[in-house]
Amino acid sequence: MKKTIALLPGDGIGREVIEVTVDVLKTIEEHYHHQFQFQYGLIGGDAIDQTGNPLPKETIETCRQADAVLLGAVGGPKWESNPVFLRPERGLLAIRKELDLFANLRPIKAFDSLLDSSPLKPEYVRGVDFVIVRELTGGLYFGKPSERTTQDGEEGAVDTLFYKRSEIKRILVSAFELAMTRKKQVTSVDKANVLESSRLWREVAEEVAKEYPEVTLKHMLVDNAAMQLISSPNQFDVIVTENLFGDILSDEASMITGSLGMLPSASLSSSGLHLYEPVHGSAPDIEGKNVANPIAAILSAAMMLRHSFGLEEEAGAIENAVKHVLGSGKRTADLAKGGPYVSTKLMTEEIKAALADD
Ligand code: NAI
Ligand code: MG
């Protein structure tokens, strides 16, 4: 199979994890006789430095001409004092909007061999396997107005949480479709006791549910959901929620698996051009030290092979290789709890070796 992959490493450890993920993809290429063409693009702080724009037009073009996009992470202290429109994170919001990547899938799956890396008790974590479906192109992060304002003679600030019915419907349909391939349970998370946007969200969820009689729909308030994720994460199959809630809940949920460095994600559009990225950021605190956990990025590449290219066997092979290496006791620093650990590169070599043995 011949495929073009747009690579947007971005900043900080984004670059480190994408570099090694490409190595893993090259191993897949060889092993399964595919041809992957890699096209690099600038995004984030690096793009600002080189072009003055966190998402240059050429990058969007590179993505549009590719079969899938693989992104590292953006941001860092260097650009922290930049005005909002010149922040690296703007590049991320912009690419989601440009490619209409409205559905962010974040699978949370516990590895048996990592039960001791989670701060939760093993009996809570064992068997956890759910997906957070986060709405990605609407809500608070995109609502207008978002500005400083004055009220009663005092400075304030306003952000707007706005969703159209159609935007809510399409994300709920994605969640129900996904649930049909899984345990057929959808938990829709909102704050319907306070927010009007959540009330509309609930109404639409009920309407969509009627079209999926086999799927059980449960509504849960977001504060309760935050608690339930820790107290009984095993109850969930598919969680669907708006942009901000999904952002917060998925970072929280990452700890179930042991580290943010374990969580992959897929951002899906209706055009068929999807983007894959680790959930974590550019981690300036560990940048350049060859200690970042590359597994989130490598598992994101596996999601790409499955969802964008239909390469189920290859995706499964990567996931099994990761499982095997973790099972053999290898840990990156974030998982090692102060014990011995391997570098980003060594972890990747182990995964490549497990793939080659497959
Ligand atoms: P972060 O996700 O970069 O890091 C949070 C903590 O987790 C840090 O202690 C970091 O060392 C650790 N960590 C993250 N990924 C890891 C990995 N693969 N292996 C080992 N440890 C890992 O979030 P933070 O520190 O809040 O943000 C840093 C920068 O990244 C900011 O500029 C932020 O805006 C940006 N960011 C970018 C995202 C993206 O590009 N998708 C997502 C989240 C944050
Ligand atoms: Mg986040």
UniProtKB/TrEMBL annotation:
Transmembrane segments: none annotated. Its EC number is 1.1.1.85. Pathway: Amino-acid biosynthesis; L-leucine biosynthesis; L-leucine from 3-methyl-2-oxobutanoate: step 3/4. Its cofactor is Mg(2+); Mn(2+). One of its GO terms (molecular function) is 3-isopropylmalate dehydrogenase activity. Catalyzes the oxidation of 3-carboxy-2-hydroxy-4-methylpentanoate (3-isopropylmalate) to 3-carboxy-4-methyl-2-oxopentanoate. The product decarboxylates to 4-methyl-2 oxopentanoate. This is 3-isopropylmalate dehydrogenase. It comes from Metabacillus herbersteinensis. The lineage of its organism: Bacteria, Bacillati, Bacillota, Bacilli, Bacillales. The gene is leuB.
